[in-house]
User: Which sequence fits this backbone?
């Protein structure tokens, strides 16, 4: 009898553990962010976390690299670096990032679109699919784009200039009739102090040779996949630049100018 009770108890514990691990899928929908966008605006470009460490938090994301060396796209667990020359490389995982957003992507909402004339229309289309303005969404758009305008930024040296000064010299690329993926996020208004309220998308071509921070696009045909994020986690940088920066000066308008 005692043995029987013990077996039951073991079964109960195993079941409880399994349920704990797999029963709550929403617990996995975490946006992990390194630093704040306001810090990037203020020229805090020193890398804080290695790409290897970053990848422990997901397989899908965007960001930049130590010293602001180009635009980051993370797709299917691989990190791509779009350099200011337009070249796309896979950086060493020991490279660090001063700002990144990463998620383990699971599709919650999916929709096919065709003939989307510009980025504004695309934002309206995505917006019509979002259940609320007040959640964070990871957004993947894979398809054929008749037009893509994207930018990248060159590596900076200390003393670091403000991001608005860097983007005045950004390189802008134009691609026509290209297949690829837009990777990015919708962030709600209440995150505006630590991110950009609205859409932030980066492009990567299917052959991994073109990409950048999205400025404009038109879509021929594409599939939109959306992952609802239910938790937000942020790494507060410990470097002197971050710790000594005055964040009172960054306005939402400045951020919109730099990012859109
Ligand atoms: Zn960007």
Assistant:
């Amino acid at each position: 009898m005692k043995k029987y009770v013990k077996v039951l108890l073991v079964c109960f514990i195993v079941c409880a553990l399994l349920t704990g691990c797999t029963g709550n899928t929403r617990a996995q929908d975490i946006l992990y962010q390194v630093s704040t966008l306001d810090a990037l605006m203020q020229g805090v470009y020193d890398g804080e976390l290695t790409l290897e460490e970053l990848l422990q938090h997901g397989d899908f994301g965007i960001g930049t690299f130590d010293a602001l060396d180009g635009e980051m796209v993370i797709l299917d667990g691989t990190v791509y670096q779009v350099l200011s020359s337009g070249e796309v490389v896979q950086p060493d995982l020991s490279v660090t990032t001063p700002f990144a957003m990463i998620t383990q992507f699971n599709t919650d909402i999916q929709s096919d679109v065709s003939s989307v004339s510009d980025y504004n229309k695309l934002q309206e289309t995505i917006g019509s699919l979002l259940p609320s303005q007040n959640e964070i969404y990871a957004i993947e758009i894979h398809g054929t784009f008749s037009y893509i305008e994207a930018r990248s930024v060159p590596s900076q040296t200390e003393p670091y200039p403000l991001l608005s000064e860097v983007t005045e010299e950004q390189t802008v690329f134009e691609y026509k009739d290209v297949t690829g993926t837009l990777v990015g996020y919708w962030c709600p208004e209440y995150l505006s102090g630590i991110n950009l309220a609205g859409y932030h998308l980066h492009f990567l071509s299917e052959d991994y040779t073109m990409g950048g921070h999205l400025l404009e696009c038109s879509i021929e045909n594409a599939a939109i996949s959306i992952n609802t994020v239910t938790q937000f986690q942020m790494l507060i940088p410990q470097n002197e630049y971050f710790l000594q920066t005055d964040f009172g000066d960054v306005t939402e308008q400045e951020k919109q100018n730099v990012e859109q």
User: Anything to note?
Assistant: The two ends are 70 Å apart (CA to CA). The longest strand covers residues 211-229.
